[in-house]
Design a protein that fits this description.
single chain, mainly alpha, 6 helices
Length: 111
C-alpha cells in the first residue's frame, strides 16, 4: 500500500496482495461491525453541517462512546446538543475554545 500526495489530492494505491489481505480482514471482521456503520464515501454526500456534526461526535467518542450513544437515544437531548455545537451557534460565540468546552460539559461529554 502506498499513499501519494500530489498538489491538494491524496491517493492511496493498493496492490493485488493488499486487496487480498484487506478482503480477508473484511470477511473475518465484517460480521462483527454494527449494522449502522456509515457506508464508505458517505462524506461526499453530507452537507457541511452534517460533516461538522460527525467530526464533533468523533471528538466526543474518544476514549468512550457511551455519552454520545446516550444522547442518540434521547431525541430531545440530541437535538439540543446538535443546536449547541452547530456551526451557526458557534459563529456567534466570542471565545470558541472555551464555549465549546462548556457545551461538552453541559451534555456530560468531557472525559
Amino acid at each position: 500500500m502506498q499513499t501519494v500526495r500530489s498538489n491538494r489530492e491524496v491517493q492511496t494505491q493498493l496492490s493485488d496482495d493488499d486487496r487480498t489481505k484487506l478482503g480477508r480482514i473484511v470477511t473475518l471482521f465484517g460480521p462483527l461491525v454494527e449494522p449502522d456503520l456509515e457506508p464508505i464515501g458517505r462524506y461526499h454526500t453530507m452537507t457541511p453541517d452534517e460533516l461538522w456534526l460527525a467530526l464533533v461526535e468523533e471528538v466526543c467518542v474518544m476514549g468512550s462512546a457511551r455519552h454520545i450513544e446516550r444522547l442518540h437515544k434521547d431525541p430531545e437531548g440530541y437535538g439540543e446538543f446538535k443546536k449547541a455545537v452547530s456551526m451557526e451557534s458557534l459563529s456567534h460565540q466570542q471565545d470558541l475554545v472555551d464555549s465549546e468546552y462548556h457545551q461538552f460539559d453541559k451534555f456530560d461529554l468531557k472525559a
